[in-house]
Every structure is written in structure tokens, then in C-alpha cells.
Amino acid sequence: MSIPVQNARQCLIWDHEHETMPRPNLEKLQLERLQKTVERCYTKVPLYKEKMDALGVKPDDINRLKDVNKLPFTTKNDLRDNYPFKMFAEPLDKVVRLHASSGTTGKPVVVGYTVNDINTWAELMARVYTSGGVTNVDIVHNSYGYGLFTGGMGAHYGAERVGAVVIPVSGGLSKRQVMLWQDFGATVLMSTPSYALVLAEQAKEMGVNPLRDLKLKVGFFGAEPWTMEMKREIEAKLNLEAFDIYGLTEMMGPGVSSECPYHDGLHIAEDHFLVETVDPDTGESLPLGQLGEMVLTSLTKEAFPVLRYRTRDRTIIDTEVCSCGRTTARMKRITGRTDDMLIIRGVNVFPSQIESVILTIKGLEPQYVIVVDRGSNYMDDLEVLVECTEKLHAQGDEALEKVKERLGADLHQVLGINARIKVVAPKTLERSEGKAKRVVDLRDFNN
Ligand code: DLL
User: Fold this and answer.
1) What's the half-sphere exposure (Cβ side, CA atoms, 13 Å) at 13?
2) In whole angstroms, how far apart are CA 254 and each of 222, 348, 422?
3) Could you give the CA distance from residue 357 to residue 420 in angstroms, rounded to a whole number?
4) Helix or strand or coil: residue 257?
5) Does 342-441 carry CATH code 3.40.50.20?
6) How far is the CA of 406 from the centre of ligand 1 (A)?
7) Nearest Cα residue to atom 9 of ligand 1
8) Buried/exposed 385-395: b ≥16 CB within 10 Å, e otherwise
9) Regarding beta strands 165-167 and 139-142, do their DSSP bridges make them parallel or antiparallel, or are they unpaired?
10) 147-176 average pLDDT score
């Protein structure tokens, strides 16, 4: 177990050796780990052997870090096509945990962890907490969802690793959450940024004054895009310092990167993840400092190693040493995605998931529009407008109501969130001459 080291400017660092490693040493370590990972993928995951053979690349061809761009990309569709376990590099008797996130259609993406993978994850989350000054004297109120989503368990194990008290609250029952803040004296909040604002509103409604009644000092917010404006609002309304935390199921979960107290980009755990940016259209590698799609290769994962994962997240990478002392590359706040995935109330949603549900219901046409907005209560609102068939329309209101209810219930089953449904008359939604515009996202993540 590491002992956090404090540098001259009061920034705590959990794993001093790896987080402040001189770049040449870090790159040497990355190359060794990359070579091992490629070997593991080639010999243990049939898809990687197939892809590498098709490109004429062998593990021995990886002699420099730059050679990473000889390797094939991995996409969400590869994971979907190999559902559930075909991309695991270890048999299930070595796997101790599964997590999952939305796939583009019915089946989710499933990832597995060995004991060592779980340990690595806890270490990475310990780095995150420590970078925000969290230690064993802290009380962590964890409102990230527990379950197949990686947020709850990821945040949980990291908090235990630094020796803090963790309160595994999960999401929902907001009144009770505010009561527990007061009663247990939480000092750290873990939640999506939008839920933090919902809780802040709830506290206000209950007459709770954060300055007077709460002990929150920091929070780590992520799992969805958020703006600087939201950050300022969370900080003001909850009287805490807000840190951005990033991660994705395919690479591990939360803990891939997070901010330090300088709030000048998110430090990537580069000894565990090799980062590149590519042009989202051509897949060509982009120079550092240029906005592009982030591509990640896992360097230490055992059960679910991933080569060049197309995250679809847009960012800029910078390798300048940070004032906090960390030498790891930093990524800028995510500015959007290169695919059509929406994150609604922290849940990943693909329009194709909604379409496949619509297609299973008799009486509905595959003519639909998805409208997403963020109300003044900071909750994302999902509305699905869908055309009915002439036949259903002729059957009248009762029949329409039944179909509406069924669609609402089926979408809830598949997405895990509620949607408002409007079944509209045939041929009333606007037709496009080119690509149909299926999604209207009224939220603004660019300030
Ligand atoms: O959201 C893991 C996580 C949990 C991260 C808790 C942070 C905190 P997924 O459900 O697989 O995993 O969703 C991953 O969410 O590709 C991004 O598009 C988005 N995302 C995650 N963190 C951020 C962030 C978790 N800080 C997808 N800012 C990613 C913007 C984020 N988008």
C-alpha cells in the first residue's frame, strides 16, 4: 500500500513512483507493458489474432511505442459481436467480476476483471481520491450507481483503498441522501454532475445550508459531459471543490483520468493506458495538442485487454509536466463524441437501442425523433416521438394509449430510464431527403 506523498504545493500524490516518473522511464515501462499486452491479445483472444493476421502484424513487430499504430483498432461493435465473453483473455475461473454498459443495440458490452485487475482499479481510484486531498480521515458519500455500471463499485473500492469511510448509497431517494450527508458528516461526494445539482436543489428545499450544515469539501464528478458553468454551480451550491473524473467500462471504469488541484486537464494513468488521438473519420494518428478522438490501449489488464479502443470521446492531449508534479499526460475536458451515443442522466443511450424497441411494437412505424433537454431542475429529459400506423390511428385513443404505455415500459426495460412518449399521427414527423435527423439534443456542453 502506498503512502501519499505531499509535494511543496500541498498536492497529495498516491503513487509517487508512477505518477511522477520521468517521461523516458515512463515510456520504457509503457513499451514493456504494451509488448506483453499485444502478446496476450494475440495468443489469447481469437479476434485480435484474426485482426493482426489480416494486417500482417505480429507481436514481435512492436519495438517502439510508435508501433502501436500498426495495431488494429477495437470498436464497440467488436465487443458486441463477441458478446458475452469471447474477448476475455482469461478463462472464467480466473475472472472475479463482470461489469457491463450499453451496446449499440439489444446486448450490452460485457467486461471481466481478474483479482489483479480489481486491485489495479482500486489503486487507480486511490490516485484519484488522493489527488483531491482525500485521506483516511474522510467520509465518502458514494451516489454513483452500484450494479453493472462501473461507477459505484469503482468509487467504492478506491475509497476503501485510501482508508476512508465509504457510504454505499447509490443513486435515488434524494431526500434520504441529504439527510445522510448531515447525519454521517460526509466530506466527499461521488456522483454524476447532474445528480449533484439535483441533490443541491433537494438540500435547498429541505432548508439545508451547505456552509452551515454540511461538511462536504470535495467531489469527483463524471460519467457524462459537463460544463464549466455546471462546475461553478456545483461548487457554489454545495460549498465544495469539484474535480472532473473520466473513465469508461471498456478500459476499466472510472479512474482512467482525473483532475488535480490545478484543474488544468485530467491526468491520465499512463502507466496503465496508452493514449493516442486520431482523426475520427480517417483513423489517422494526430499530433499531440490537436483535437481528436481519443484511442486507448490497456497496458496491464489481464481478463479484458484492449488494443486501440476507439473511445469516440473528443479531447486534446498534452504532455507538459503539471505544476502538481505529475508527469503523466493530461486530457482536456471531453467536448463531445464522434458517434451518436447520448448520455442521459448518466446512462449511455444509443438511438439504435430505441429504434430496435420501436421495431418490436405492432402499430408503430420506424419514424421517430428523440428529443433530449435539460430542465431547470438539472435532470435530463428524454422524449420519444413516434408515428403510429394508419391502422392503429383508426382504432382511436384507447388503442393509442396502450401502445404508448407499452413503448414506455419496454424502453424502461432496455435503457433503465424513463422516457416521455408521444405517439403521433402517420406522416406527421418531418422527412429528410438525406440522413434522417433522429436526435434533437437541446443541451449545451460547450461552455
Ligand atoms: O461512465 C465510468 C465512469 C463512472 C466515469 C463514474 C466517471 C465516473 P461508461 O458508462 O462506460 O463508464 O461511459 C463511458 O461516459 O466514453 C464518455 O463518453 C462519458 N464520460 C465518462 N466520464 C466523463 C467525463 C463511465 N468526466 C463514457 N466527462 C465515456 C465527459 C465522460 N464524459
Assistant:
1) 21
2) 8, 14, 35
3) 15
4) strand
5) no
6) 30
7) 248
8) bbbbeeebbee
9) parallel
10) 97
For the chain, the structural domain boundaries read 8-23+111-331, 342-441
Sign, CA torsion 169/171/172/178? positive
Q: What is the whole-number distance in angstroms between the Cα of residue 222 and the centre of ligand 1?
A: 6
- pLDDT for residue 410: 96
How far apart, in whole angstroms, are the C-alpha atoms of residue 134 and residue 116?
24
User: What is the distance in A from the centroid of ligand 1 to the CA of 271?
Assistant: 20
CA of 401 to the centre of ligand 1 (A): 36
**Using an 8 Å Cβ cutoff, are 238 and 215 in contact?**
no
Q: Ligand 1: residues within 6 Å at CB?
A: 101, 144, 149-151, 222-225, 244-249, 253-254, 311, 313, 334, 337, 343, 348
Q: What is the whole-number distance in angstroms between the Cα of residue 250 and the centre of ligand 1? A: 10
The residue type of 367 is Q
| Topology at the third CATH level for domain 8-23+111-331 | Rossmann fold (3.40.50)
Treating both helix axes as pointing N-terminal to C-terminal, what angle do 397-415 and 351-359 enclose, rounded to 10 degrees?
A: 140
Q: What is the tens place of the pLDDT at every residue in 375-420? A: 877 789 999 999 999 999 999 999 999 999 999 999 999 999 999 9
Of 313, 333, 341, the one to substitute when testing ligand 1's pocket (max ligand atoms within 8 A of C-beta) is: 313
